[in-house]
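Protocol step 4 of 5: obtain the predicted structure for the target chain.
Materials: sequence only (see below). No template structures provided, no constraints applied. The aim of this step is simply to have a reference model before the mutagenesis design in step 5. Sequence pasted as it appears in the construct record:
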Amino acid sequence: MTRDTDPQRTVSRDGAAQSFPAETAAPARARLFVLDVLSQWGRPDLIDDAMLVVSELATNAVIHCQSRFSVQLQRCGSQVRVEVVDESGRAPVPENAGQFATSGRGLSLVEAISQDWGFERIDSGKTVWAELGATV
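Step 4 output (structure tokens):
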């Protein structure tokens, strides 16, 4: 079921997806998408963590991969899987950012707040994912 007239957005009971351009404002729009979907799904408990995850992964897609991206949310029991698909095959690698570094902590944050996270290479790039919420 499509929630609005945006052809790049689909939302159903157990899944949602939206595509975004490779521009610096896109991660903020991705956060709003996550907020909207999780609110519809009645999962306010996951909104802050999911918005942080999508912000970090979407920013990596735009800044490091210079790629457009899509955000996909999947609901499975009490968990929600957040996926960001970009056009780069480069593996995401958490950095050991120093105390005074102004960047490089994104994947470490994703790792810290998710039950699990990882990535999968696909023909057109990669999917970086994080699972949030209680395990079933």
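Step 4 remarks: Residues 9-132 form a domain with the Heat Shock Protein 90 fold (CATH 3.30.565.10). The chain has a mean pLDDT of 87.
Proceed to step 5.
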